[in-house]
């Protein structure tokens, strides 16, 4: 990926827990449980607010793929 495009992607707005909840289809409480247990996408604490980087969320989702035998 060209560095200019990478910089653009890195500058996307951070996701709130509510936005990520809707994207993943899980309750916000699940995101808080995952954070407490140290699983789930990487979360950043900005002051008292939790935020997620979309690129990190997408990488985490990709890691969750399970290869099932046919």
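^ Assign residues to that structure.
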């Amino acid at each position: 990926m060209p560095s200019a495009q990478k910089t653009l992607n890195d500058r996307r707005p951070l996701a709130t827990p509510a936005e990520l909840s809707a994207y993943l289809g899980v309750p916000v409480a699940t995101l808080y449980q995952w954070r407490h247990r140290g699983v789930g996408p990487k979360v950043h604490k900005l002051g008292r607010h939790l935020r997620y980087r979309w690129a990190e969320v997408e990488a985490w989702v990709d890691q969750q793929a399970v290869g099932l035998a046919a």
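The radius of gyration is 14 Å.
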